[in-house]
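Sequence in, structure out.
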Amino acid sequence: MSGKPKQLGDLLGDLDPNLAKAFEGLGRQVLADAERQQASADQAGTGARKRQDASGGAAAQIQAEPLETAPKAASGQSGAPEGPSQALTQQIDLFIATGRAAAPKDELATMEHPVYAIEDGDQRILTYEHNGVTLEVTPSVKGRATIHDKDIVLTCVSKVVDAVNRGEPVSRTVSIKAHDVLTFTNRSTSGRGYDLLEQALERLVGTRIKTSIATGKPARRRTKGFGLIDAWETITRGPNNRLEELRITLSAFTFDAAMALEVLSIDQDYFKLRKATEKRLYELARKHCGDQGRWKVGLDLLQKKVGSRQPLFKFRATVRGIGEAGSLPGYHLVFLHSDDSVVFYGRSEGGLAVMESDLVTLPKLKPKGTRRKSVRRPVTKGD
């Protein structure tokens, strides 16, 4: 890459019009990202200065106190843990998930494979095989659990992993406020929001999985069957029986993955995505592209991993629309007509560098000839 940065327009000049249009859209998204980041940085700097001014007197008092009176850091809270400690093997009957903020996490196994449906009311039995992994998903009479239902499981997993990182004992049965689930997953806290929670729990407990995916450490690969959750219970309060508390028993499959930290951090804006296909595409981008520059995948394989039942031409149009909208948090999506594939780019310096490199190496549009073809005039009588 040359020392002088190239302008996007210079790189687009000789590209195929379809590719040029796609990357022009990406250029606009990149500029919008940069403006948002600058605005956030300015706002954070202003807030930090205000807090510093307001806490000046308090800071002076703290410095005047004897060193021995300063509170000591709690065990397990200093630094980022590299893995579960011995204390994490302790388990209790009921893990009470507090309202303490927890970074959202996703399970590696269900990010890779289409365990959850992307269509409401999906009653089909899904059979899936890829690279030696087999998966069979059988729905209940109320339908297969959807990727939106998965938000409840991710809330519990995020709370468990947060406790694991802090060295606190945990349990497969998680007690959590229903309001906390709704706010964590960016859902409505109206009465309908609480009703939809119960419906989602019924689909989660009714959907059965048979798979050879290995989880836990040491990983053991065996075929087993289980539900997405083992059990659920609701606790209501008041004369109107308003839902207040959920008690959810995670499957051993999910709990083992959380205990082994077989999870990835995800963007909080993931829960703002309302289209199921957008959520699946984000999961796959996060799993395969991660913090690196890019991930390229053929459209056929992408459709298989997403779990879409659409005809290929409709799935292609859906993916292109999502790419043009630029709605995936942290990633750009480009559809390539040349080989019917999709490329994900990270919204990072590394992703932008790879994108510029790809623009240089993409096939250019062949120049059209300037030579005029000779036209034979018809012969008429009398010539």
